[in-house]
């Protein structure tokens, strides 16, 4: 069965520092991959997605993610974090050929300190 | 494009009552919609897949008689929480098919 692991429950970074959030998945084929951000009490906003092609994906708000097949990973990165980036981040995988369902990791809570 | 709306955005109800949550696709037609539930400070859990014109498909452990899903048209899917209890209090979110990847804004249900 497919699974998504976000090893870091909570991360604290200083404003202006770089950020990397980890995501590992388990599936027999290459799934669709997504990163979402959720502010407190709010819905989800899509940051970026990977279906195929270039393994380095650019998203909104200065985020990027790199798909590494050999490591079954899809880590999210940002070179310089802003205070407004504090939120919950979810990685999701959407295995192809399963009716478009997809499943979420447990999330990483990001705190940004001045 | 690919906008999904939900109504209501929040609802408070008494234990034992039923609550209906609507999920509408505003600028696309969807034969399939997905319903998720999110408990505080937890991840989203897929509850069920609603299918236009046919029965919904429920994930393991989700009570189909308690969470009634109706996909009456290509733009509307509804989730009814029947005989709600405090443990049903949660954030319910719907989503369109993968090629849109867009979620509704969510409905906060509080059962007293």
Task: Note the overall shape of chain B.
Answer: globular
Shape of chain A: globular
The number of distinct helices of chain A, counting runs of at least 4 residues, comes to 0
Provide the helix percentage of chain B: under 10%
Spans of chain A with pLDDT under 50 lasting ≥5 residues?
A: none
Helix content of chain A: under 10%
Assembly type of the chains comes to heterodimer
User: What order do the strands of the largest sheet of chain B run in, or round the barrel if closed?
Assistant: 2-10-9-4-5-6
How many β strands of chain B by DSSP? Answer: 10
User: What is the average of the pLDDT values of chain A?
Assistant: 89
**Cα-atom Rg of chain B, whole angstroms?**
13 Å
Q: Which structural class fits the helix and strand makeup of chain B?
A: mainly beta
Biggest chain pair interface: A-B, 21 and 21 residues
Q: What's the average pLDDT of chain B?
A: 90
Structural class of chain A: mainly beta
Kindly provide the radius of gyration of chain A, computed on alpha-carbon positions and rounded to a whole number of angstroms. Answer: 14 Å
The H/E string of chain A reads EEEEEEEEEEEE
Largest sheet of chain A: 6 strands, mixed
Report the order of strands and helices of chain B: EEEEEEEEEE
Low-confidence stretches of chain B: none
Structure description:
The complex is a heterodimer of chains A (114) and B (112). Chain A is mainly beta and 114 residues long. Chain A has no helices and twelve strands. In chain A, the strands form three sheets. In chain A, strands 2, 5, 6, 10, 11 and 12 form a six-stranded mixed β-sheet that branches. Chain B is mainly beta and 112 residues long. Chain B is built from no helices and ten strands. Chain B has strands at residues 4-7, 10-13, 19-25, 32-38, 44-51, 57-58, 67-73, 76-81, 90-95, 107-111. A six-stranded mixed β-sheet of chain B has the order 2-10-9-4-5-6, with no helix packed on it. The mean pLDDT of chain B is 90. At the A-B interface, strand 5, strand 6 and strand 11 of A face strand 4 and strand 5 of B.
């Amino acid at each position: 069965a497919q699974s998504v692991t976000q090893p870091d429950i909570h991360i604290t970074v200083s404003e202006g520092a770089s950020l990397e959030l980890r995501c590992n998945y388990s599936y027999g084929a290459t799934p669709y991959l997504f990163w979402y951000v959720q502010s407190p009490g709010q819905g989800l906003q899509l940051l970026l997605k990977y279906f195929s092609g270039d393994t380095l994906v650019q998203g909104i708000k200065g985020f990027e993610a790199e798909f590494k097949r050999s490591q079954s990973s899809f880590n999210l990165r940002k070179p310089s974090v802003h205070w407004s980036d504090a939120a919950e981040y979810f990685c999701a995988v959407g295995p192809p050929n399963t009716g478009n369902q997809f499943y979420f990791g447990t999330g990483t809570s990001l705190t940004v300190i001045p | 494009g690919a906008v999904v709306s939900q109504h209501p955005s929040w609802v408070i109800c008494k234990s034992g009552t039923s609550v209906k949550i609507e999920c509408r696709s505003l600028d696309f037609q969807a034969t399939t919609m997905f319903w998720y539930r999110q408990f505080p400070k937890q991840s989203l859990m897929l509850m069920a897949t609603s299918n236009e014109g046919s029965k919904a498909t429920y994930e393991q452990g989700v009570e189909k008689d308690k969470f009634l899903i109706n996909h009456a048209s290509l733009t509307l899917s509804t989730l009814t929480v029947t005989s709600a209890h405090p443990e049903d209090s949660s954030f319910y979110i719907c989503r369109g098919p993968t090629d849109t990847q867009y979620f509704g804004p969510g409905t906060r249900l509080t059962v007293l």
